[in-house]
Structures are given as C-alpha cells and as structure tokens.
Amino acid sequence: MTGLVPLAAGPSPLWYATRAGGTVALVLLTTTVALGVAVGGRHTPRRLARFEVGALHRNLSVLTLVFLALHIVTAILDTFVHLGWWVTVVPFAASYRPLWLGLGTVAFDLLLAVAATSAVRLRMGQRWWKAVHWLAYAAWPVALFHAAGTGTDTRLTLQLALYAACATLVVAAVWWRLYRAGPGRVAVRLWAGVTAATVPVVLAAFMNSGPLQPGWAQRAAAGTSTGTGTVHSTPAPTDDDEGGSE
Questions:
Q1: CB–CB of 87/67 below 8 Å?
Q2: Which of 113, 125, 173, 197 is the one with CA 20 to 30 A from 77?
Q3: What pLDDT, on a 0 to 100 scale, did the predictor assign at position 48?
C-alpha cells in the first residue's frame, strides 16, 4: 500500500542499556571517590579494618569499570550514532557531540591509567602510583559534566536528584577528610575545600544555562557531520519527548 508514512521507531534496547550503564557507572565512581577521600590518609574507621576498606574500594573500582565498559560497548553498537571504536580512547574525535562525548573519553582514559598502574603498583613504587591514582579523583567531575551535557535523561527530576546527590556526597567526603586531617597545610586544605565546593556550583550554573534550557539537543550536537560519529536516520528521543538531550 502506498502513501503511508512509517511510524518513527522508538529507542532501541541498546539506547536504554547505554544510559543505564552510564548512570550506574557514575554512581559507582562517585561512591569509589567518596570512599577513597573519606577514609584515606591517617584516618582509620573504628568498625572496619583498613584491609576491609581497601577491599571494598577495589571492588567498587572494578564494578565501575565493568558498567563503564557496558556503557561504552552499547553506545558503539547502537545504530543511532556510528561512533567507531577509536572514539573510546581518542578524546573529542567524534563529530557527534564532540565536546560532551570527548569529556566521557577523557574520564575513561584517566580511569584506564589508574587501573593499568594499579596492576604494576609494586614495580612503579608507592609515590608514583599515588600520583597517578589521583587521576581517579580528576575523572569524577569530568564524568559528571559528561553525563549532564550529553545524557538524554538530564532534565528528568530523578536524574537531577542523582547528580545533586553525587556532588553532595563527594563534597561531604572532602570536607570530612579535611576535618579529620587536623592542623597544618592550611593552604592545601583551603584549596581542596574551595575546589570541592566549586564543582556543584559550576555544575548547577551549567545545567541552568545549558541542558535545562529548550533547544539544548541542537546546541549540544554542534559539530555533527558525516564521518566519525555520524547520526543514523532512525529518530531518537528529543528534549520534548524524553526530557533529555539526545
């Protein structure tokens, strides 16, 4: 029969798996960072042995990488955007939402560096390993802005509450660590406290002027073209029908 317009296809299971994997990975990364900050240094929890805390921290790190891998693989396999495997390790190489996808790649590369050096921790020495390990803390705000900038569910109330909870947890962990640190190194402690408090403020300002405003999907997609990260003709949820920015 001619003259009929086919109905728009809905999001594929991969589309949902990508967002679910990314959300869970962000929660796990937040928990890992907050735990590492709160119980690091000289402070030892009273009810838990240090080796138990270390084991929990490592297990959370592994789970973070597992769900991050799920997030990446499903995003690449999804036919809506043809990303290409090199986009997972080369930041800002995609022509579809290059900035926001690039931030995700940066966070992934930082976490890979931490995982790789942890495998050879005894060979590279404690001092150098600690220096690289700090990259995990740097990966967290990058991942948070990646999720807020490119996530199609950013405008949903539950997702906004999740971002707020993640920011609050890490800031609280930093301030708790500073409180337990005792006197000394005032400049370093002040810098750490101010930096931690700045992240949610900047995130809120960005959300208010970007993802929460109408038309963010079009602005976030600036740079989309044929080539790496090309967009498939199958329609995907928009700001209006999914409350997000795909």
A1: no
A2: 113
A3: 61
